[in-house]
TrEMBL record:
One Pfam entry name: GFO_IDH_MocA
Domain spans labelled Gfo/Idh/MocA-like oxidoreductase C-terminal: 184-457
InterPro entries registered for this protein in UniProt: Gfo/Idh/MocA-like_OxRdtase_C, Gfo/Idh/MocA-like_OxRdtase_N, Gfo/Idh/MocA_Oxidoreductases, NAD(P)-bd_dom_sf
Any one GO molecular function term: nucleotide binding
Organism this protein belongs to: Pedobacter chinensis
Highest taxon of the lineage: Bacteria
Protein name: Gfo/Idh/MocA family oxidoreductase
Domain spans labelled Gfo/Idh/MocA-like oxidoreductase N-terminal: 54-171
Length: 462
C-alpha cells in the first residue's frame, strides 16, 4: 500500500469514538494536519458551466478568480458592473465579449437567457430584484450573503426558488472551510459527547471595522443591512450548522459607542487629508491605512500601472468616504454586538461580534458532556474528559488566491467548486448552503436586530 492510500485509511480515536479523516501529516504527538477530500459525488465535466457576474467588486472578483484558474469548470461569459474601471478589468480577465458587458443588472435580463448561472455579488440592497429576475428566466444563482435586506424578500426568493426548481446557493462560505467542516464532523461523531453550549467570537479587527462599517459600503444600516446580517450572518449560520440544531429563541444587545462625533479628538478635521492635527497619532488614520500601509486599497479602483500610486490614493481620499474622519461619518452600525441563543435540545450559545481587536479570524469554544473543543480557524483542539488527552487538528487549504486572503479559511473557492457541480448535475444536494438551508440564520439575524432595538426575547420561526 503506497503512502497516499495508507493515509486515506487512517483514523483517529477520541475516547470511544473513531473519527475518520484524511490525514496528510502527523506533525507531532496527537497533532495532525488535514485537507478536505474530494467529494465522491463530483463528476468530470464534458464542458464548463457558464455564468454571468453581476457585481465585479471584491466578492465578484474572488468567485471570478476561481473561473480564471479553473477554466475547465466554469467560464464567465458576461459581467454587469456600473464602475467602468471594474467592468473593464473583469472583462479583460475573463475575455468577455463587448456585447456581454453591461452597466447594470437590468441590462442582463433584457437579453434572452445566455448562461447556466448568474453570480450576484452586488451591494446587499441590490440582491433581491436581480435574483428574482434570474430565477424567473431559468438561471441558477450563486448569491452573496446576506440573501436580501428584509425577511419578506428572503422568503420571496425561497418561495420562487422552490416554484421554479432552480438552484440558489447562498455564499455562507464558512460551511465549506476545512476548519468548520472538521468541527461539524467531530461533533456529529460524538467526539465531545452531547453538545451543551457554545461560545463563538467574531473579532472584526479595528481597521476592518473602520474600513467597511464606518467609512465603507455598509456604514449605514438603513441603506444596506444591519451589521448582524452584513457581517455576522456567517456566524449565526455556522453555529447552527456545526451542531445541527434549530434555533428557538434569541436575544441581543449592542450599540454604536465609539465612532461618533462626540468622540472626535480636538484638532481633528472632516477628512484625514485636511491637515488634521492628530492624524499621525490616530489609529484610524486613512492616510496611514491606505497610503502608508497600502491596505484595502482595491476599493479605490486605482489602475495597476499607475506611476505614483501613493499620490493617486491621496487624491481618492480627498473625494471618497474612505478619506473621511471615522468620528464624522453618517454611520449607524453598532461597533459591539452580543447575542444569546436557545437552540433545540437545551443547547445554549453566546455570540459576540467586536470591532475593537488587533486581530481577526473567528474563535469558537464548544462544551460537551464528554469533552470540549477550542479553535481559532488555524487549529482545532479537542479535549477528551475520559482520557484527559488532547488531539489537535490543523486545517490545510489550497495556497491560491481566493483561499489565502479572504478570511474564510478556504471556503470561498470550495463553495464555487461545489456550485459548479450542483449546476452541472442539476443536483442542489451537492451544496450545504442552499437557500433552504441558509434562510434560518437570516431569520435569526432579523430577530436579533429586533431584539436589540426593542429589548425583547424573540422567537425564531422558520
Amino acid at each position: 500500500m503506497n503512502r497516499r492510500n495508507l493515509l486515506k485509511t487512517l483514523s483517529l480515536s477520541l475516547g470511544a469514538t473513531v473519527v475518520s479523516t484524511d490525514v496528510l501529516a502527523r506533525l507531532a504527538e496527537n497533532t495532525y494536519s488535514y485537507r478536505i477530500p474530494e467529494n465522491p459525488l463530483h463528476k468530470p465535466l464534458d464542458k464548463p458551466i457558464t455564468a454571468i457576474t453581476c457585481g465585479a467588486g471584491n466578492r465578484g472578483t474572488v468567485y471570478g478568480n476561481f473561473a480564471a484558474n479553473f477554466p475547465d469548470q466554469i467560464k464567465i461569459i458576461g459581467v454587469a458592473e456600473p464602475v467602468p474601471f471594474r467592468n473593464e478589468r473583469y472583462a479583460k480577465k475573463h475575455n468577455i465579449a463587448d456585447a456581454n458587458r453591461f452597466n447594470t443588472w437590468e441590462d442582463v435580463f433584457k437579453k434572452p437567457k445566455m448562461a447556466d448561472a448568474v453570480i450576484i455579488s452586488m451591494p446587499d440592497n441590490l440582491h433581491y430584484e436581480p435574483c428574482m429576475q434570474a430565477l424567473k428566466m431559468g438561471y441558477d444563482v450563486l448569491l452573496e450573503k446576506p440573501i436580501a435586506p428584509t425577511e419578506k424578500e428572503c422568503r420571496d426568493i425561497l418561495a420562487l426558488a422552490k416554484k421554479t426548481g432552480r438552484i440558489v446557493a447562498v455564499c455562507h462560505v464558512l460551511r465549506y472551510a476545512p476548519y468548520f467542516v472538521k468541527m461539524k464532523e467531530l461533533i456529529a461523531k460524538g467526539a465531545i459527547g452531547e453538545v451543551i453550549s457554545i461560545q463563538h467570537f467574531e473579532p472584526i479587527e479595528h481597521t476592518h471595522m473602520a474600513h467597511s462599517y464606518v467609512r465603507g459600503n455598509w456604514h449605514n444600516s438603513k441603506e444596506t443591512t444591519p451589521i448582524i446580517l452584513a457581517k455576522s450572518c456567517h456566524d449565526l449560520d455556522i453555529m447552527k450548522w456545526v451542531i445541527n440544531k434549530k434555533a428557538k429563541r434569541i436575544v441581543a444587545m449592542g450599540d454604536l459607542k465609539w465612532f461618533k462625533k462626540e468622540n472626535a479628538p480636538e484638532g481633528s478635521t472632516a477628512r484625514c487629508t485636511d491637515g488634521c492635527a492628530v492624524e499621525r497619532a490616530c489609529p484610524y488614520s486613512a492616510i496611514k491605512e491606505y497610503v502608508d500601509r497600502n491596505s484595502r486599497t482595491s476599493v479605490l479602483d486605482i489602475p495597476e500601472n499607475t506611476t505614483d500610486r501613493k499620490a493617486a490614493i491621496r487624491e481618492k481620499l480627498k473625494t471618497s468616504d474612505y478619506g473621511r474622519c471615522v468620528y464624522r461619518m453618517d454611520n449607524d452600525q453598532p461597533d459591539h454586538y452580543i447575542t444569546s441563543i436557545q437552540f433545540s435540545d437545551s443547547v445554549t450559545a453566546n455570540f459576540s461580534m467586536e470591532a475593537f481587536t488587533s486581530y481577526h479570524d473567528r474563535r469558537t469554544r464548544i462544551m460537551g458532556s464528554m469533552g470540549d473543543m477550542v479553535g481559532d480557524m488555524t487549529e482545532l483542539v479537542v479535549h477528551d474528559f475520559k482520557t484527559r488527552q488532547e488531539t489537535k487538528f490543523i486545517p490545510k487549504a489550497e495556497d491560491v488566491d481566493g483561499y489565502k486572503n479572504s478570511g474564510h479559511g478556504g471556503g470561498d473557492w470550495l463553495l464555487v467548486r461545489d456550485f459548479v457541480q450542483a449546476v452541472a448535475q442539476q443536483n442542489p444536494a451537492l451544496l450545504t448552503s442552499t437557500i433552504d438551508e441558509s434562510i434560518e440564520s437570516h431569520i435569526m439575524g432579523f430577530m436579533a436586530e429586533s431584539s436589540r432595538k426593542n429589548g425583547k426575547v424573540m422567537d425564531v420561526k422558520i
